[in-house]
Amino acid sequence: MITPTGTPRDATVLEARGVTKRFAGITALDNVDFTLHPGESLALMGENGAGKSTLIKVLTGVYQPDAGELHLGGTTTTFARPLDAQRSGISTIYQEVNLIPLLSVAQNIFLGREPRDRWGLIDFKQLNENARTLLDTYDIHVNVRRPLHRLALGMQQMVALARAVSIDARVVIMDEPTSSLEAREVETLFRVIGLLRAQGIAIVYVSHRMDEIYRVCDSVTVLRDGKSVHSGLLADLPRVELVSIMLGRSVEKTKRESLTAFGSARTSSQAPTLIATDLTRKHQISGISLEIRPGEVVGLGGLLGSGRSETLKALAGVMKVDNGHVRVGGRLVKNGSVSAAIRAGIVMLPEDRKAEGIIPNLSIRDNIVLAALPRLSVGGFTSRARQDAIVDVFMKRLRIKATSSSQLVSELSGGNQQKVMIARWLAMNPRVLLLDEPTRGIDVGAKAEVQALINELADEGLAIVMVSSEVEEVVEGSARVIVLRDGSVETELIGDEVTEHHLLSALVGEPITVTKELP
Amino acid sequence: MAYLQQYGVYIAIVLLLMYNAAFTSNFISVDNFRTQFIQMVPVLIVALGMALVIGTQGIDLSGGAVMALAAAVIPLYIGYGLIPAAAMAIFAGCLIGVANGAMIAFIGVQPIVATLALMVAGRGIALVVANEQLKSVTNPTILSLGRNSIVGVPYSVLVAVILVAVVALLVNRTTFGKQLVAVGGSRRAAELAGLPVKRILMTTYILAAALAAVAGIVATARLGASVPSTLGNLIELSAITAVVIGGTPLTGGKVKVVGTVAGALLLQLIAATLIKNNVPDAYSQITQAVIILIAVYIQRGKLAVR
Amino acid sequence: MSVIVPEAGLPTTKRFDRETLALGAQKYGATVVLALLVVIGTIAFPTFASVSNVSNIATQSSFLVIVAAGMTFVILTGGIDLSVGSVFALGGVLAAYGSTFGSVEALLLPLVACGVIGMIQGFLVAYVGMAPFIVTLAGLLGVRGIVFASTNAGSNTPIVSDLSFKAIGQETLFGVRWPVIIAIVVIIVGTVLLTRSRGGQSILAVGGSESAAALMGVAVARIKFSVYVVSGLCAGLAGALNAAYSSSGVPTVGAGLELSAIAAVVIGGTLLTGGRGNLISTVVGVLLLSVIQNLINQVGSLSSSVQSVVSGLFLAIVVIVQTILSRTQRL
After folding, report:
1. According to the model, what pLDDT value does residue C14 have?
2. How far, in Å, are B167, B215, B250, C56, C89 from residue C239 at the CA level?
3. Distances in Å between the alpha carbon of C303 and those of A501, B68, B128, B133?
4. What value does the mean pLDDT take over residues A197-209?
5. How close B124 gets to chain C, by Cα (Å)?
6. Per residue, what are the HEC states of A163-228?
7. Which is more confident, A512 or C75?
8. Structural domain tally of chain B?
């Protein structure tokens, strides 16, 4: 079933040359080169939007590149659909286990390739035996007749891996395979990866966890803004260097560069508006405590998967925590209730503006007044005058560019949509404003406007927490940065410490021995 | 395509009227229009509730059963007068709405199955309440609701007009109306904006049931009899058709009240045109089936990939 | 069955047991209730267990079993078919027409016509991507319209004239009526297809997770298309048998049959969201509905409408349990 290859090390198994992919004018991949050798384990790195998932989709036949070519085992090839890539030996396992939960382990591994008896019917005895033999090869012990969803997530991921390699795989692409695994399950995964590599199967490993990358990968390709900005051996590359390549910031910069008015010293000595204590949720965040004072902009630093968005969600009542609590002005806020958080004055601009923020089918006016509607109504009837009073003020103040307040919000640019979201919350007179990637997907001009607005709001006494994957934005916009790593607070940077250099090294964390367990 | 989506139903109405003016004798007359309006009242009222439900990205198959239950309850209380009987009928209908809403909003059952269960059980309950009997209704007030007019407008049509106005007001001018379309447009975003999503869904299904109960009362008044065994049978299908061809997308987030009225009118005109031209009633069903497919297809806008 | 599974040592063991219990309740609940009802019926009514009554229940159930078998396939992919009642009537009317030419025509005509209707619906769902409930809703209306249009608004009831075709509905083999035997054959063939063929595995995969199935190389559209064809064929076959049984193709027959079929499938324990279920449990669901009806008739003082109350409530309870279960099960 598994073809051990004796291919020499210098031959390539999969190669991309000058791959370019555009979507509606946006270049997602720009002339990307990528090389993979048999038995190699390559880390594919980059922040959100760098083009990693687009590249994976090109390699697996989900997308066809607009320019450039793929070479498989030295010959040029094209994948019209995912099945073609699979048949050519490129298998993928995803962050979410993409198998059928209700089917058994064996059924999942051999779906579509079940052994049949002479009547043409599936031979379940043989099927289960084949599955057991396959799993035994990798020292994975599980009842192959069990429905998949009854297994722990890690074991499900192993089954996905077993399926992937059983289709005569030459390349296995793993997209954040460990994001929901227990430490012990991660160990099993790494062991299996080792066995696969020994058979000459090449691995493309996508993860944000530095420890894992340095442990299982020997080379790295870094994407940024759709371009491959670095390829090389990991051993030659210190972590800080890798992160700075990913984020596009040079490590030498030590001083704060306040070119914009954004940022400056926005600290405060007043009593904290918001106090969060020991926020914990399994697999997501553990023991996060923080205090935010009025008029303060606090950056929440961290790489993707560090728990930065989850922390905001916990504060906003969107995500229920297993442990810990949030207080605003000394009063406890009910756990896991958005409306309770809003009543207490905590409001959040979600990261995914299109799916979780705006209501696309409603007008700008309706979107702005959505949360405040009950207050702006008289006996359940909407008062257009009261609404317009609020809407006009915010449209002017936030400089929302639209033909009228009746325009559909889905027709606006990203920046203006974000302003509509801010207006929605300002209409609620909040005390704490949580911003998750406030300037993502917004053009440069609008970005500066939004940043200026954040400062303005802080001046008015709002307590602001901001998450951004742009180091520059965090450093210039925050008076204080709380750095998260692997779901807990790594360190806190205050005043002069708020520099890109400090932040970068904090993001990476102190060097960790390979035996350290992941949370 | 976008043009058809928005105005298709009105164009179809105009074309049908033009055709009938030219080829169908006695079609364009006050009497005929009065008859047509009276006949479309129950479907229209159920469709109003259906439009609200579809606006939340839901569906309600129990409308006909609620009509039957309302019809079954009326004879029990008609001795106290029309108003108490109607109130009890609406109350009974609302109980079905509560059951629908509870299953859908709080437990998370798919709307189609939840309301399917109530469609089966609801008619059964109606028949049990009525002891499986057809009862004639003799109370003069309720009969006049079905038969009399005020300045030429039949009372039943007046009820429908008032309900259309109320629902239009509800959708366009109330907090609840805005919240309803917000939930239908993006439930997740509505939750994150702090809206009481579950309560909104619950209210919507209760409103739909209340409207269906009114339809049951009006239909009973017109028949002069309580017929729980067949009243409103499959009416939810016509209601869904009316809503969809009226431009309310099945994907929610939008409620077109006037469009729904036009949709119900179009269905009625098609049936009338066929009948007046001696085409068997069966063909109007086939036509309705084709229209519903076309309407949904036009709404989709583009072909699915593969 | 219980091989030692290393991951069972996780702290989820307690939830596991409760889950197993709830799962069992969902899987075997209908069987247990059916058994209880049979015991109660046997004790309470001397005529309940009589040969004639049992044979009666079996024959009455056989038509619904065949329709519900097709419905099971559709529901297993996560779809729904509301048109089966109308297709059932069409099958009956066409069988009666066909019987004027001979017994083969009496069987072939409804199967071909109903198969074509299934293909149209399947095409619209699988390849055009329209919602199953709206497509089959149109089917419910349109096919009933076709039936009425071809029978002068239902006033003509075509009579089954071919004697050998009539025999399929009315004669017995070893004391068992042919419709019952055919229903059993349908269930056996269907079960083999579902559990032992690659196509059956694909149906379960599509219902379990459409996107994952597509990524795993399953031809999702083809599978979805085919289940509507199967459902159309089953409803047409059942309608034809019913016509043979009652000697005529009644145009109004089968109204509300789709609800009974869906109720039977879901009550039996097939997940409404698709991916899990089988035909045997559908048979149990049908029998449960039939026995409830039979018992209500036995009591005599209860009106038959109590049956729809009971089956409606039963359906509600089952979907509520299913929904709550699927939330705790990471499905």
Report:
1. 46
2. 43, 34, 32, 18, 6
3. 82, 16, 7, 11
4. 88
5. 5
6. HHHHCCCCEEEEECCCCCCCHHHHHHHHHHHHHHHHCCCEEEEECCCHHHHHHHCCEEEEEECCEE
7. C75
8. 1
Of the ranges A254-258, A324-328, B242-246, C185-189, the best mean pLDDT one = C185-189
The b/e string for B190-215 (b: 16+ C-beta within 10 A; e otherwise) is bbbbbbbbbebbbbbbbbbbbbbbbb
Q: Is the complex ipTM higher than 0.90?
A: no
DSSP reduced 3-state for A343: helix
Helix axes C84-98, C220-246, angle to 10 degrees: 50
Our CA-based measurement puts residue B154 at a distance from the nearest CA of chain A, in whole angstroms, of: 30
Question: Which region holds residue C212: left if phi is over 0, alpha if psi is between -120 and 50, else beta?
Answer: alpha
Is the minimum CB–CB distance between A406 and chain B shorter than 8 Å? no
CB C252 within 8 A of CB C165: no
User: Per-residue pLDDT tens for C218-254?
Assistant: 889 999 999 999 999 999 999 999 999 988 888 888 8
Q: Which residues does A346 contact at the CB level (< 8 Å), separation at least 6?
A: A274, A315, A316, A317, A326, A328, A333, A430, A431, A432, A434
Interval B139-194: pLDDT, tens: 888 888 888 888 888 889 999 999 999 999 999 999 999 999 999 999 999 999 99
Question: Is B186 close to A355, i.e. CB distance below 8 A?
Answer: yes
Residue C45 phi/psi, 5-degree rounding, is -125, 115
Within 8 A of B181 by CB-CB distance, chain A residues are 359, 361-362
Cβ atoms of residues C298 and B103 within 8 Å: no
| Closest CB to C198 among A122, A141, A151 | A122
C300-311: average pLDDT:
75
Domain limits of chain C?
61-283
Domain segments of chain A as ranges: 14-237, 253-345+430-519, 356-427
Does A512 score more than 60 pLDDT?
A: no
Cα distance between residue A91 and residue A13, in whole Å: 13
- Contacts of residues A23-32 at CB distance under 8 Å and 24 or more positions apart, as own/partner, are A27/A226, A28/A54, A28/A226, A29/A54, A29/A55, A29/A58, A29/A65, A29/A226, A30/A225, A30/A226, A30/A227, A31/A67, A31/A68, A31/A227, A32/A68, A32/A223, A32/A226, A32/A227, A32/A228
- Whether A6 shows a pLDDT value over 70: the answer reads no
Provide the pLDDT for residue B2: 65
What is the pTM (predicted TM-score) of this model?
A: 0.82
Q: Which CATH architecture has domain A14-237?
A: 3-Layer(aba) Sandwich (3.40)
3-state secondary structure of A129: helix
How high is the pLDDT of residue C253?
A: 87
Please tell me the distance from the alpha carbon of residue B299 to that of residue B4, in angstroms, as a whole number: 9
Residue B215: domain span: 33-233
- Strand A274-281 with A323-328, pairing: antiparallel
CA B76 to chain centre: 25
CATH of domain A253-345+430-519: 3.40.50.300
Q: How confident is the model at residue B66 (pLDDT cuts 50, 70, 90)?
A: very high
Placement of tokens 């004027």 in the chain: C100
Q: Look at residue B107 and tell me if it is in a domain.
A: yes
Both structure tokens of A499: 């520099």
Buried b or exposed e, range A297-313, using 16+ CB within 10 angstroms: bbbbbbbebbbbbbbbb
Q: Which chain B residue's Cα is nearest to C140?
A: B289
What confidence score (pLDDT) does residue A256 get? Answer: 41
Q: Summarize the confidence of residues C201-220 as an average pLDDT.
A: 88
pLDDT at A320 over 60: yes
Determine which of A81, A361, A417 to mutate to test the interface with B (most B C-beta atoms within 10 Å): A361
Within a domain: B175: yes
Contact in structure between A35 and A233 (CB atoms under 8 Å) = no
Strands A67-72 and A75-77: antiparallel
